[in-house]
């Protein structure tokens, strides 16, 4: 496994999975079943969150909180709860799968008067897209409360390496 999260690899994954994602509208269960370098995956292999017995979230959930609130909350409201301008993402990620979420963020979407611009070239989003998704799933599931997570796991070295590689 490469430590970098290059944008092109992510786009290729989206392109390959887009066909099957359209057939599967809802995401699978969010329960964490496997972990690699601090990043958890659900049974279907998609990224997910983990909350330990002491209520501490994994690093990727915490990173997702930070990145969501630096880039997405302006339109989608605090903690993905929605606004008069854009829908609640915590509800959206419970109704669409990971690949559809990724496709919408990368390519944008227009539905009536609502427009989600494309963020496929924005490194501040693309380098942390999994983290944002993980955070939204965590809050949407009700297992992580709104607001800044009080406790979180340490930042894995592999995260820093991937972040540096992606951001350039």
TrEMBL record:
Residues 1-23 form the signal peptide. Pfam families: Cytochrome_CBB3 (PF13442). One of its GO terms (molecular function) is metal ion binding. Residues 26-47 are annotated as: Disordered. It comes from the Bacteria. Residues 40-140 form the Cytochrome c domain. Keywords: Heme, Iron, Metal-binding, Signal. This is Methanol metabolism-related c-type cytochrome. It comes from Amaricoccus macauensis.
């Amino acid at each position: 496994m490469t430590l970098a999260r290059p944008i092109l690899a992510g786009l290729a994954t989206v392109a390959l999975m887009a066909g099957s994602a359209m057939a599967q509208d809802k995401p699978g269960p969010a329960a964490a079943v496997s972990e690699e370098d601090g990043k958890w995956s659900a049974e279907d292999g998609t990224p997910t969150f983990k909350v330990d017995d002491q209520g501490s979230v994994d690093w990727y959930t915490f990173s997702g909180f930070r990145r969501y609130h630096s880039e997405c909350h302006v339109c989608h409201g605090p903690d993905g709860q929605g606004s008069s301008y854009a829908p609640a993402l915590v509800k959206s990620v419970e109704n669409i799968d990971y690949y559809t979420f990724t496709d919408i963020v990368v390519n944008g979407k227009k539905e009536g008067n609502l427009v989600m611009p494309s963020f496929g070239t924005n490194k501040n989003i693309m380098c942390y897209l999994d983290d944002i998704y993980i955070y939204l799933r965590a809050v949407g599931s009700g297992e992580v409360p709104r607001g800044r997570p009080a406790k979180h796991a340490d930042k894995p070295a592999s995260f820093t390496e991937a972040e540096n590689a992606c951001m350039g």
